[in-house]
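Lecture 7 notes: from sequence to structure.

We start with a single chain of 334 residues. Read the sequence below before looking at the structure.
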Amino acid sequence: MSAMPTVSAPLGSVLSSASEPVRLARVRHLIHKSTFSIVATDHVTGEIGCAVQSRYFAVGNVVPWAKAGVGAVATQAAGVAAFGPRILALLELERLLPEAAIAAALADDEQRETRQLGVVRADGASAAHTGSECNSWAGHRTGAGYAVQGNILAAEDVVLDMERAFLRSTGSLAERLVTALEAGQAAGGDSRGQQSAAVVVERPGAAAETREGIDRVCDLRVDDHAKPIDELRRLLGIHLRWDALRRASAHYAPGRYEDGIAILSAALERFGADATILYDLACFECLDGRSDDALAHVRAALELDPQLRAAIVADGDFAALADDARFRALVEGR
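Now the structure, written as tokens:
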């Protein structure tokens, strides 16, 4: 997506001036949406999503679309946000292949050659469209389970390196999508620079796993930043920690504590010391009768964040430790 141009007068005065038709045309051209993006699915987990970066404000509001069990869409260049839900409906209700869904969405569009679209269906079928009037460099790559596309790029290497990085990467789909963005930026990215980025991922069944009641498992947006992909990666790290806490909370019931412990222990091993993860892990361990483990993790949590002391004292999850001298010493700061 294109950045707003630098002009010597406020944009409003440029747009309202009838005496500058050439300049007005240039402004309209420059605010066309353009970007580099990837849509993909993970056939093992069932996750499906889209990641995007652009020299454009709040690109996540327009380009990425996903629906669990259906597909994902990136709509860019002279992009039309409505193409996202329209194509998802064609995939779901008409059961069209991505190529046919793109053709149907653009059938009556007189500006179809200015559009760029990437589409992947939940079963891995994919397709992309790069109109002949998209600004160079513009193009796409598709394969089983993914489509990578971009316009106004530094070079073709941007999409080629994104494709390679995605296919070689590991981890959750959100992590792999952001890895692809990082590779695209390293290859030159958007020729105009950076401004915003986003990643959206959905998974069938996620709605039933937590109290949120929706299938969206990741929705992160960086609307304006000097290095939006770096910031997106930082936010994703926070998201993954909170996601472990969220998934563990689904096992907060007698007979299921062991599953919560397993999730939080894995998160602790992966991300290192984190006060909130340690706190919740200690709660699950105490409820499961693992007093020594709970005490060790309470101690570690307090070393990282002493302000948790008041919460620990008031938390009924630690009732079984109330008469333990070691626990009292910890919460009293002795």
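The two ends are 58 Å apart (CA to CA). Keep this in mind for problem set 3.
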